[in-house]
């Protein structure tokens, strides 16, 4: 594999978000990074190696960022634990997701699945999951643990739904959105809820857990739609993943659903026979793009970004905090990785 270089932050808005979040945000993110490293290093050589490699490969750390932004000025030790726990669940899911999707490349590097095999990847993911809940449990908040465990269960259901729909010629866009909600948006929602729980919560800003949760769910859906656009559009040097991984794997995403509505020949294309290698996947990506489906899918993602911003109308957030959250919402569909 000629692995593309690791991507930069990938999030165009990141600098503006950090500026809006102030020094507390940068400090919180640094503490999160240090804690993640400690966890990677403290559980034996082999597990540590796979976990630490996954960690060091980077990633946007978008979910910790969201935890801190939702916590606002109140960010304390509990918030750091929540940010660490959410990122660990995210990483666990990715390590397992690459087994399920048989994906060779992530964050510009070989996946644990590719470099060390299915067994090592399964165990590494399990390890990361268990550390996530240990971290959050230490805060003594059953509500926080429940929030994250609900999201993890939803994630598993979403991945099962994806397998059930693999190679199907008749996945509706409604069903696709339900899948995105389960496998991606619930964790974004949990990140926001956790921020609210450890931050202003109900006594500080009434309604904040529910409203910030709704905000997270909508940006999560937009994020996954755009991830699926990036899978088709590439380029791999920027996304850190091969183009057409979803197609090779039989995963039916919005770009293909929309392209099938526009190009009748695509309706009869059976991925199992038409896409058997990266070159064929590339060619099909081009055909999907030619129908204009990527533009329309991005438009669809933008409607969720708009809904996310509207959810913030319901609560009385400090202006800076709101501005930062809006920048993140815009950022989920203005990124390269
Ligand atoms: C990838 O998430 C998985 C999806 C939900 C699409 P990210 O794009 O946030 O992954 P990293 O952490 O930045 O690599
Ligand atoms: C997102 O799905 C992964 C999870 C939410 C578990 P994808 O399969 O689209 O994510 P990538 O493209 O591998 O990052
Ligand atoms: Mg995947
Ligand atoms: Mg993807």
Overview of the molecule:
This protein is mainly α. Helices cover 74% and strands 1% of the residues. It is built from 18 helices and two strands. It has helices at residues 14-41, 45-56, 62-71, 77-100, 112-116, 118-137, 142-164, 173-198, 201-204, 208-233, 236-239, 245-248, 254-262, 264-267, 271-274, 278-290, 293-311, 319-331; strands at 105-106, 109-110. A two-stranded antiparallel ribbon has the order 1-2. A hairpin with a 2-residue loop joins strand 1 (105-106) and strand 2 (109-110). Helix 3 (62-71) packs across helix 8 (173-198), helix 4 runs antiparallel to helix 6 (118-137) and helix 13 (254-262) packs across helix 17 (293-311). The chain is globular. The model is unreliable at 1-8 (pLDDT under 50). Bound molecules: 3-methylbut-3-enyl trihydrogen diphosphate (2 copies) and magnesium ion (2 copies). One magnesium ion binds next to loops. One magnesium ion binds next to helix 10.
Brief sketch in words of this structure:
The chain is 74% helix and 1% strand. It has helices spanning 14-41, 45-56, 62-71, 77-100, 112-116, 118-137, 142-164, 173-198, 201-204, 208-233, 236-239, 245-248, 254-262, 264-267, 271-274, 278-290, 293-311, 319-331, and strands at residues 105-106, 109-110. The two termini are 19 Å apart.
Features:
two-stranded antiparallel sheet, mainly alpha, 18 helices, 1% strand, binds 3-methylbut-3-enyl trihydrogen diphosphate, binds magnesium ion, single chain, disordered N terminus, globular, 337 residues
Question: In terms of topology, how is this protein built?
Answer:
Elements lengths: L13 H28 L3 H12 L5 H10 L5 H24 L4 E2 L2 E2 L1 H5 L1 H20 L4 H23 L8 H26 L2 H4 L3 H26 L2 H4 L5 H4 L5 H9 L1 H4 L3 H4 L3 H13 L2 H19 L7 H13 L6
Antiparallel strand pairs: 1-2
